[in-house]
């Protein structure tokens, strides 16, 4: 008698894999705990990306930052994050029981690990995150940058805008990196996208993004198949500002050949966003590969 191994992927991910032309959804080392190397990796980071849901159910991202050690892992299913920014609108959404998606990424060496789960506890200074899934990602399309600590100042409150304002267009038009928050009834995901400067095209109020070959898990697209809402976070690496735009995504599964190295293309129709000046006590400098 044979026993079928349960797929680590939810329905949306399996659907996205089929739409991408994968005849058999791949298995993956997606664990219900963090291996020791992942725990050690998170503890060395000076920043981490996290996604939450707002009051309307939209997935929204932020970057949390601190001196190395601001993240700790007391056991293989727990991360504790010290964060005290009172102006971060996403931080306030991370209440006990709330779902989260987490991305740890080190731009200096292209390492990245992802996790998701639920907030176990939260107060004004500490988030305790209960990990339900943990997995690594490949180093592709991560542009090298070295981070230095910048004297922390009180970050400004968020500045809201509708559509794409001039400042957002300027930042996005030359960006080589962004982070995307997506979600479905299965939870939240926080992921990275990178390419050459200007790889995100701006067409009116829409962003057109090439999708390159990755780990074939289709975590982000799997969520978008079920819920088209997404939020993108762009970092001004020289100033420590962050800009978030959100909207609904359409995926063109057959448009990839029109763009160099792309397998498909997706478009985000921007509805609104917000900007936080001086949100991060870090500055990054580009480094050649």
**Net shape:** globular
| N-to-C SSE string, H for helix and E for strand | HHEEEEEEEEEHEEEEHEEEE
Query: Quick check: average pLDDT?
Result: 92
Q: How many beta-strand elements? A: 17
**Name of the top-level CATH class:** Mainly Beta
Largest sheet entry: 8 strands, antiparallel
Structural class: mainly beta
Euclidean distance between termini CA atoms: 51 Å
Domains counted in the coordinates: how many?
Answer: 1
According to CATH, the homologous superfamily is Electron Transport, Fmn-binding Protein, Chain A
- Count of helical segments? 4
> How is the CATH topology named?
Pnp Oxidase, Chain A
Beta fraction of the residues? 35-45%
* CATH architectural name: Roll
List unreliable stretches of 5+ residues: none
Describe what this molecule looks like in 3D.
α1 crosses α4. The longest helix has 9 residues, at 11-19. Strands 9, 10, 11, 12, 13, 14, 15 and 16 form an 8-stranded antiparallel sheet that branches. A 7-stranded antiparallel sheet has the order 2-1-5-6-7-4-3, with helices on one face. The chain has a two-stranded antiparallel sheet with strand order 8-17. β5 and β6 (111-122) form a beta hairpin. The protein contains 4 helices and 17 strands. It is mainly beta and 289 residues long. The mean pLDDT is 92. The radius of gyration is 18 Å and the shape is globular. It has a single domain, classed as Electron Transport, Fmn-binding Protein, Chain A (Pnp Oxidase, Chain A, Roll). The relative contact order is 0.19. The protein has helices at residues 11-19, 36-44, 166-173, 219-226, and strands at residues 47-53, 59-65, 71-75, 78-82, 99-106, 111-122, 126-136, 145-149, 159-162, 177-184, 187-194, 201-203, 206-212, 229-236, 241-252, 262-276, 282-286.
């Amino acid at each position: 008698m044979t026993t079928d191994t349960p797929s680590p992927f939810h329905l949306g991910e399996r659907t996205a894999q089929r739409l991408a032309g994968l005849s058999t959804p791949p298995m993956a080392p997606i664990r219900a705990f963090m291996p020791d190397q992942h725990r050690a990796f998170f503890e060395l980071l000076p920043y981490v990306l996290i996604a939450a849901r707002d009051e309307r159910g939209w997935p929204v991202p932020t970057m949390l930052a601190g001196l190395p050690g601001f993240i700790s892992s007391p056991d293989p299913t727990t991360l504790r994050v010290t964060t005290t920014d009172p102006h971060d609108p996403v931080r306030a959404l991370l209440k006990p029981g709330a779902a989260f998606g987490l991305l740890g990424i080190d731009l200096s060496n292209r390492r990245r690990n992802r996790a998701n789960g639920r907030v176990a506890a939260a107060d004004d200074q500490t988030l305790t995150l209960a990990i339900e899934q943990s997995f690594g990602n490949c180093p592709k399309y991560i542009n090298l940058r070295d981070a230095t600590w910048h004297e922390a100042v009180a970050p400004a409150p968020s500045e809201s805008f509708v559509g794409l304002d001039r400042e957002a267009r300027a930042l996005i038009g030359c960006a080589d990196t962004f982070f995307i928050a997506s979600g479905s009834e299965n939870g939240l995901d926080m992921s990275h996208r990178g390419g050459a400067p200007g790889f995100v095209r701006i067409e009116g109020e829409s962003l057109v993004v090439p999708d390159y070959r990755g780990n074939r898990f289709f975590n982000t697209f799997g969520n978008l198949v079920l819920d088209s809402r997404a939020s993108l976070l762009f970092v001004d690496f020289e100033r420590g500002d962050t800009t978030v735009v959100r909207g609904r995504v359409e995926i063109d599964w057959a448009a990839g050949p029109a763009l160099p190295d792309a397998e498909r293309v997706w478009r985000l129709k921007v509805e609104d966003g917000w900007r936080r000046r001086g949100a991060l006590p870090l500055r990054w400098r580009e480094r050649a590969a």
